[in-house]
């Protein structure tokens, strides 16, 4: 997934100074952002109030959209560095191509995980023959300093472990571990992500780690997470300090639970790059414009995305929160 903002703000986040050790219930509003030719997304992270949850640093939620007569998602080749992208669908399909030669259709309940490392380019599109509905989330995970220059790669996991609980709870473990079930997806920091489905009239509790900070992204229905009722497309930041998470649902509902150990390092995030300094970001932009370092995405019918102009002032740190 690309940040298609032609004037992306520079964001520096990370560090533990603004992480409370106590549970919180902080509801974050989404920003509507156009993506490609015909897709609108709700951008929930980075947010004016919060910029990271563990190593999770970017969250877009889209759909459900009726694309029966539309091209659907069409995101041209674009670069990434210093991060992982996570593709997660509830409806539809997304065709992934990248500069290391990967070609994969990601479907609902399957994990598409791209590790950019030092540099990669990719495109994302709805196949020409596609389902009527498109609904999902695209997320980024920041790589720690010791791993952010590794070779790029792509993983596709069609089978993921599940957790079941009394009262109609089913959870698919996307990354990391939840209640003893571990995803096969590669991670570089202590973190987790799960898709939690609650049947109507569910009242359950989900075990969580007190040293992790968590957030809940509502996908459908109206799940009640720790006493807060959430409409689809909303993000509830929960902080740290819990050992279990109370859940309720009066109707069939689903949400993504995202968590991780608070990310210690300060990072600079601009456009589709994560680095540690203004100079790193500048060099990455120059390399993409010159056609070096990030490789070539073959097979996409269209031109790569041009990089936007850098801001006229050096990129500065602003912390994990506003």
Automatic annotation (TrEMBL):
Q: Which UniProt keywords apply?
A: Iron, Metal-binding
User: Cofactor(s) for this protein?
Assistant: Fe cation
Tell me its family: Belongs to the pirin family.
Mind telling me what this protein is named?
Pirin
Residues of the region (Disordered) are 300-322
Taken from the record, one Pfam family name reads: Pirin
User: What top-level branch of life does the organism fall under?
Assistant: Bacteria
Biased segments, Pro residues type: 305-314
Q: Which InterPro entries match?
A: Pirin, Pirin_C_dom, Pirin_N_dom, RmlC-like_jellyroll, RmlC_Cupin_sf
């Amino acid at each position: 997934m690309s940040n298609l903002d032609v004037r992306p703000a520079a964001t520096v986040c990370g560090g533990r100074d603004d992480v409370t050790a106590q549970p919180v219930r902080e509801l974050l509003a989404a920003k509507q952002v156009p993506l490609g030719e015909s897709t609108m997304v709700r951008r929930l992270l980075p947010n004016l109030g919060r910029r990271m949850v563990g190593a999770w640093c970017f969250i877009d939620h889209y759909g459900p959209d009726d694309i029966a007569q539309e091209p659907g998602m069409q995101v041209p080749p674009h670069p990434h560095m210093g991060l992982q992208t996570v593709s997660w669908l509830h409806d539809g399909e997304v065709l992934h191509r990248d500069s290391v030669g990967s070609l994969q259709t990601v479907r609902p309940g399957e994990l598409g995980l791209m590790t950019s490392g030092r540099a990669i380019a990719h495109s994302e599109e709805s196949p020409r023959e596609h389902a009527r509905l498109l609904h999902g989330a695209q997320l980024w995970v920041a790589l720690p300093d010791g791993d952010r220059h590794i070779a790029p790669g792509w993983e596709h996991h069609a089978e993921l472990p599940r957790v079941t609980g009394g009262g109609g709870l089913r959870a698919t473990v996307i990354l990391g571990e939840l209640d003893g079930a571990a995803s096969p997806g590669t991670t570089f920091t202590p973190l987790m992500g799960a898709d939690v489905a609650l049947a109507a009239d569910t009242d359950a509790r989900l075990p969580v780690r007190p040293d992790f900070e968590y957030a809940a992204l509502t996908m459908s229905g109206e799940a009640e997470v720790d006493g807060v009722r959430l409409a689809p497309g909303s993000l509830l930041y929960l902080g740290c300090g819990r050992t279990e998470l109370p859940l309720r649902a009066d109707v069939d509902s689903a949400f993504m639970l995202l968590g991780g150990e608070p990310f210690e390092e300060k990072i600079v995030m601009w456009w589709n790059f994560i680095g540690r300094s203004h100079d790193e970001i500048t060099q990455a932009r120059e390399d993409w414009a010159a056609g070096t370092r990030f490789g070539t995405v073959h097979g996409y019918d269209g031109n790569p995305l041009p990089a936007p102009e850098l801001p006229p002032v050096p990129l500065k740190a602003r912390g994990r929160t506003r």
